[in-house]
Specification:
Oligomer: single chain
Number of helices: 17
Low-confidence stretches: 1-7, 84-93, 321-326
Strand order of the largest sheet: 1-2
Structural class: mainly alpha
Strand content: under 5%
Order of helices and strands: HEEHHHHHHHHHHHHHHHH
Number of domains: 3
Mean pLDDT: 77
Shape: globular
Largest sheet: 2 strands, antiparallel
Number of strands: 2
Helix content: 55-70%
Distance between the termini: 55 Å
């Protein structure tokens, strides 16, 4: 007979195989992609894929190149539909998709949905149900993955151009970061560097979890940071990098909606190392400060969103009803202000000490 613990690990969709994953929306344990897409779980899976598309549209606002890529994706959907209906000569052909989308912002999912034909909408829904959206939405590559190879001989004039390349791909550094000597008259404790690693692990995990779109889910993302980093949450100090990482990794295991595989945890460890190393030996602390700046702006956004109702009842939203199962309460503004001060401290510390403390040999 199964124990209660054994039962809790069984896939709740097929009730046969051991569950390996937890749905971040309804917290149901499931074993595979097949079960995740099963009819009994369709509402959650459709909402997930709908968000992938909707947030991809939002992320591309204002970028001509990205707008063209998204237009190509939508036209690909249209072409797939056309290939399947070439024998429908008696039906009136709809205007070209590009013509219908003229003057419409592609970050507005509802406006795009309104101009699609019924066949195109059906094709879109079929993609969601089959999980084929991943084939047309580009994968996200973390900005900290870029690392320059050290060259023995290098043109002096290439330095500024190279710097601009990696800087453009990173979150912008905060302006007017105060000097550490201005905010702290004492020498920093040795634990500061390890506490920072605890925060960076939480940041890398949350950013990977939301596939780089964490600013579209600011409150949820900040919740994730608070949950995973005991230093952010309660000021815990660490005496080694291993202890700092293990602490955050354990919190991942304890949190159902953030839980991930062992492979993902190992991936995050590599991410932290890459952030600490920076893009090159000349800018060792740049990725650290860029990550902290991103955290700061993320918290500011969550603070501004606290108490606001950002839900919508548009045609697209009604069609793909998103009853978010995150169900996380807004963090108190006073707590968010405290976290902002803490991030300011780490920014100032990093500006002065990080390049030497995390020196890559």
């Amino acid at each position: 007979m199964e124990t209660v613990e054994d039962q809790s690990k069984t896939c709740r969709i097929c009730n046969v195989t051991t569950g390996k994953y937890v749905c971040p929306r309804c917290n149901v344990v499931y074993c595979s992609l097949i079960c995740y897409r099963a009819n009994v779980h369709l509402q959650c899976s459709e909402s997930f894929y709908k968000e992938c598309i909707e947030e991809e549209l939002k992320a591309r606002n204002g970028d001509p190149k990205s707008q063209k890529e998204m237009l190509d994706i939508l036209k690909r959907v249209e072409n797939e539909e056309d290939d399947e209906s070439l024998d429908s000569d008696d039906e009136e052909m709809a205007p070209e998709l590009e013509e219908r989308l003229a003057g419409i912002s592609l970050d507005d999912a509802d406006a795009v949905w309104d101009v699609l034909t019924e066949e195109e909408r059906k094709e879109f829904v079929d993609l969601l149900q089959k999980g084929d959206v991943s084939q047309i939405v580009p994968n996200w590559t973390p900005w900290w993955k870029y690392r320059e190879e050290k060259k023995l001989i290098e043109e002096i004039t290439s330095s500024s151009t190279r710097d601009e390349t990696f800087m453009q791909n990173c979150p912008k550094l905060l302006d007017n970061i105060p000097s550490f000597d201005e905010i702290c008259k004492k020498s920093p404790a040795a634990c500061v560097q390890f506490n920072l690693i605890n925060i960076l692990y939480a940041y890398a995990y949350v950013t990977q979890y939301f596939a780089g779109d964490h600013h579209s889910f600011a409150m949820e993302a900040v919740h994730g940071l608070v949950i995973l980093s005991c230093n952010i949450r309660s000021g815990c100090n660490y005496d080694s990098a291993e202890a700092a990482i293990e602490s955050a990794s354990s919190e991942v295991t304890n949190c159902q909606w953030l839980s991930g595989s062992k492979d993902l945890k190992n991936l995050i460890k590599a991410d932290v190392k890459e952030i600490l190393e920076g893009p090159n030996d000349t800018h060792r602390s740049f990725y650290i400060m860029s990550a902290l700046s991103d955290i700061y702006n993320l918290i500011l956004k969550a603070k501004n969103e606290a108490g606001k109702d950002i839900g919508g009842k548009s045609a697209f939203s009604k069609k793909f009803s998103d009853k978010s199962v995150f169900s996380l309460p807004a963090l108190p503004k006073a707590q968010l202000r405290t976290i902002l001060k803490k991030i300011e401290f780490y920014l100032s510390w990093s500006k002065k000490y990080a390049a030497d403390v995390f020196c890559v040999t």
